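Progress narrative, work stream C.
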Amino acid sequence: MRSSYAVMEQKFKTSDGIDLRALHELCEREGEEVCFRKVERMECEGEPAHWFGFVTEGCFKYTARGISDGKEHLTWFSFSDEYAGDYPACLYGRPSQTTIEAMMDSRIHRVSGEKLLAWFRENEEQMELRYLIGEHLLGQARARYLDFFRTTPRERYDLLMRRCPGIVQHLTLQDIASFLNVTPKTISMIRRDITFGQ
């Protein structure tokens, strides 16, 4: 059985069954192209979220601090040809739930959440798209949550490596463990098993 995890990990793309061409055009037409150096932040957890955009090069990671331990936990990625932003917090300038940071030198066409909200309100078709995006993201979040129960750490690792074969060059062992919700020791054991063909 194919896990939904592989699909769920893709935030939302133009190939997800939602026609996002108009949104892409908005980002290019009315937005600004911004270059981010590695570790530069697009949004900071706890501060008002402002931006939504289409990644044209590079990738961004999403992190959140643990309530009790204060540690940074990796929660999501946005890669080239995907959208990035803390949606829907950016629509209303609400505090960002995550820090969004460039994992390498990256480029994005971005618009303000305020401009995006105004665009959604222009007509019924665009408002419908707003709802579809919200439903899609809710579905992805639910699938990610469920897959922590229905996939093994090895299956989650394999899916991540298939989707992003070069990701290990940009993430520490701790980052990968955090994203897959396992310990670094578990990742080491998985890699050892792969190396020795187990």
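Work stream C, second folded protein:
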Amino acid sequence: MANIYDINNFCSELLEAVRYEDIALNGIQVSNDGEIKKIGFAVDAVVDTINEAAHQHCQLLITHHGIFWGKPEAIDGSHGMRVKSLIRNNMGLISYHIPLDASDICGNNIEMCRLLGLTDLQPFGRFKGSYVGYAGQTQNAVTIDDVYRMLDFGRSQQHTYLGFGKNKIRRIAVVSGGAGHDIYSAVNHGCDLFITGECSHELYHYAKESGINGLFLGHYWTETFGVKSLSNEIKKQFPDIETVFIDMPTGL
């Protein structure tokens, strides 16, 4: 059986974590004792996911959003509750932020590009000097309904669609999470559709005046892909370890 350091070393190398400057602490955020028999995967390291992982007998939680974001923080309030829950349950926490957005093996964005069948992928969407997303071409022109179907996203789910561009879509840019500002680059790259998580008020008229489609599927939802894909990679490397995805959607 592996321990938390074995798991983290594998993740760090797979995601090429040293390549990226980040606002988050990537890697082990809270250590634990003993062997890892079961790992919970989640988008957010919050009390609900920590407690659910403990309920499902996990010894380790791997998330996209951890609990340390580049500055000292008192072990108090909500932050303290999360730390206490991890320690009380002897649960380790490993988190990878930008590396799990940007990875071309199991990142949030590459997984969405695969579902969309995009080819001729080009790096897109810079964060602290690194590209984290992709822009590419569909094999044939698609409609927005095709996009929903390929991503397996129900139109009844909470989201925002600004349909100000072409009905027949060929070039798509994808950046997971809170990357609404990258719509400006999507216009400059001649994209028909820009996909990200969060929208903001000022983007409405820009999209309309620029004639681009913007699809904002939620910060949470667009960042479920990476941890799920990483779970599969860990299962290949450590076949004796059980894995589970802990879904705690926020609708945002």
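The mean pLDDT is 97. No further action is required on this item.
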